Amino acid sequence: MPESSIHDKCRPASNRLKKLQALRKQALQRRFGHASDARRLFVERAGGSAAKAAGRRRLAPVPSDQDWERLKDEEGRLNDALLDFHLDRLAVLSSVAGRVHAFSSLFFTRLMEGGCKQVSRWTRSLRQKVLGGIFSKEVIFVPAHDSNTEHWWLALIVYPWAAARITENGERLPSPSGCKAFIAFLDSIDPRLGTSFVDPEDEQAAQQAAACAQQRHEKALKLLREYLKHEWLTCFGGAGWDYCEDLIEGISLEVPQQTNTTDCGVYVLEYARRLLDDPRLLDHVCTHQASPPLLVAPVSRSLRQRWQKLGERLVADAAPRRKEQNDRSPASPVRLEMKANFDLTRDSPMQLEENLKILDFYLPRLAFNSSSGDRVLAFESDFYSHVIQEDWTKALNVSLEIRKDIAEGIFARDLIMVPSHDEKGHLFLALIVHPWAAAEMSEPMTEDTAFVAWLETAPTKVKGRSKFLEKFREYLKREWRECFGLENYDPKRVEEVILQVPKGDANPTMALLELAHRLLDPGSLDHLCNHQASPPALMAPLQLQQMKPADLLVPTE
Fold first, then answer.
1. Which of 78, 440, 475, 546 has the smallest number of Cβ neighbours within 10 A?
2. Per-residue pLDDT tens for 228-258?
3. Where are the strands (E) in 338-461, listed by range?
4. How many Cα atoms within 13 Å fall on the side-chain side of residue 426?
5. Domains in the chain: how many in total?
């Protein structure tokens, strides 16, 4: 694939939002006649610090003065304190934070020393946050240390969930996403991949260094395969899926090679920074299992000085600050002053109207409090009734409230959740994903796909899906015209996706709320948007008995 097309495919979402903002501004100028009237409708949102981005997760502490001296000394070797401090913050501040997870530098050492049992509790907090644990992430960063040579290098576990295969009648079915799980090794002392401080004319030294690198990578591949198998069973048990760790291949990526014997730790940080700074590089590695040119580019001679300056900025960011008030406006037009007086623990069946009231109360709060809140909207069930009855005036009035908050309206969001039901009263969630992607532009904003996904848990299939899809398509076309004043929205480009979720006779309201709770994790949401398939966390068995109503009202950060 040409480099230009790769960059187009991986264009950051901010560029797409700028195009939407430009379209909206033009529409408002046509409507009001003055640019100033349009500008006032735009909402600016500032970013936060590493602590805010990390939410409740505890970041690595600030290194000591003795640790910093290692970075300042040209002959100093970086230790675990320096690597963890920088890598933690690079990961949570990155634009791909929801897609990645960075292990501590001690993780691989403990795995080598004691096997999977030694690190079985390292992801417990992540599993509590999202049921899929590390399998909700696309890339896992594993800094590794060779105690024999005091050498640091980096392993990337890519698409760890893709090695799982569902079994039917004793046969393994192909991965529905088409993705391939693999482990990539980024090693700054590997003469097989480039020129390093190892003299290529010294054939014996070069062969020895290459053999050491190969031995490191083979051992790591074996250990990480075993760990992923163990972690899958911990997360999901059987669940009808078989984790085939033997399908995970190991590849060595071409990366810049260090020019001395002490810079390996700095090179590990530089590899991670390049991948986390530019999502296109990370996507290139995931898609092509090869290094993009910008990852292979030579490093600066003043690499240590650059990391000293970056470290100073991160230390300043880590300083305690006075708690700021959250002034984020609601993500959807919900009545947040409502009080809950629902009994979600009773076993007796509830009427459809009561079930819808419960979804109307909890679902917007789940979306608002989640770490994906700025990417998601949750409508109330009245909106669905307006769309199905083709009462477009009322449906557009509901989304008018969104346009007052965000000028681009629903098209500034990645996901819209709509509580729905069929004629027989079966509940389900309609998920409208990437609604902007069906617009026909002279210059495409994105290569994402607009689609409507159905989230249902009842054993009986929802009737009339095709009718629902057509109504949602018509609404999106009218909303685009209302928002931007353009007729270039092609509703036929909005596809249909049926998600794989646990089925059963469980309370459908609580089941849908639990699945929505899982889906709002950034990693799971990215998986749905990028692969049009259920993320692993969505396919795990329901845990209704562990789901408390209070859990639905607190932030999921």
1. 546
2. 999 988 888 765 578 889 999 999 999 999 8
3. 376-378, 415-421, 427-433, 451-455
4. 18
5. 2
